[in-house]
Amino acid sequence: MVQGYVVKGMTCAHCVQAVSSELKGLPGVEDVQVDLPSGKVMVTSEQPLDRAAVAAAVDEAGYELVGGEPQ
Fold it and tell me: Where is the HMA domain (predicted)?
């Protein structure tokens, strides 16, 4: 299952790494793809992710989840 989100505040490769690392730590997450210019983050997981858990992981990385819904 792939879910798309928008993360605010990412400006460099380090930002992408920080967000990817936190999201990959969530249970069931298999892959994370980040498009830096748009802030879009595509998360592939075994099952739907809880939006609050995704927001908490993004917050832990130092950024803000501002949009996106399961696709």
Answer: 1-66
User: Are the beta carbons of 7 and 41 closer than 8 angstroms?
Assistant: yes
Q: Please tell me the distance from the alpha carbon of residue 36 to that of residue 27, in angstroms, as a whole number.
A: 24
Q: What is the pLDDT of residues 23-44, one digit of tens each?
A: 999 999 999 999 999 999 999 9
**What distances in angstroms separate CA 19 from CA 16, 45, one per listed residue?**
5, 16
CATH of 2-67 among 3.30.70.120, 3.30.70.100, 1.20.1260.10, 3.40.250.10? 3.30.70.100
Phi, psi of 52 (to 5 degrees): -65, -35
Would you list the domain boundaries of the chain? 2-67
Single pTM value for the model: 0.92
